[in-house]
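--- STAGE predict ---
source: upstream dedup step, 1 unique chain passed
mode: sequence only
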Amino acid sequence: MDSTPSKARYVVVAFMITLAVITYIDRVGIAVALPLIRDELKLSPIQMGWTLAAFAWAYAVFEIPGGWLGDKIGPRRVLMRIVLWWSVFTAATGWVWNPSSLIVTRALFGAGEAGAFPNLTRVLTTWLPVKDRERTQAWVWLATRLSGAFTPILVATLIAAISWRRTFELFGVIGVIWAVLFFRWFRDAPSEHPSVNQAELALLPPAKDTAIVRDLYTQTIDITVTPVAVFTASGPPLSLRGGTQDVRQFAERWAQRHRRRQLQGDDHAPH
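--- STAGE serialize ---
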């Protein structure tokens, strides 16, 4: 058996950083193109406001459902679907013909992008050792900020060369290519990926630990960092008070309760 860990997790990180860049290019591009869109479609100031707000409102509404869906069916299928979805509506921004079509298109685009970062985080939780997660998240967020910075220059250059309509179509094609490549290569569980050897698998968190993290997100109904009672779907409320240490203790107590229920279930299982 090869004692040198394979490098599949680094490919996953590259996919996630690329995804973060694509999300910000697609969402920031409208700000650069909007003056030209305004002139061509004869947008009023109110209609311009609705164009920008439509994305934000749809994003806010669908972000939590998008993350929940990733927990239910896995980020591979969810990311492939939502990236295809928002890429279609990124391209469709170049096909709009009046203010209403523009506003609806941007709302549908925002609904798709909303699930990107919850599922991205889920992927990194499953595919990275605990010690590498914070650093990788930092690189992902750095990529978003850098892409937000260079997107205006990129979009302005492309608009001058091929028009604002063709620019959005190009961005849509890039997203479709990412979705196809990601779906073909990625697996939700590292153990199912042919490029992952046993040495790399030993570095990654066990599946039962990532399941506990998933359940902590999906079964907790309400968590705040002020002194409150936290109600879970599987038992009596747990007390959670402000502070990092208390949050950690809460998570540990929840995990212990989860393991006790599993052991009790094993004890009552037929032998």
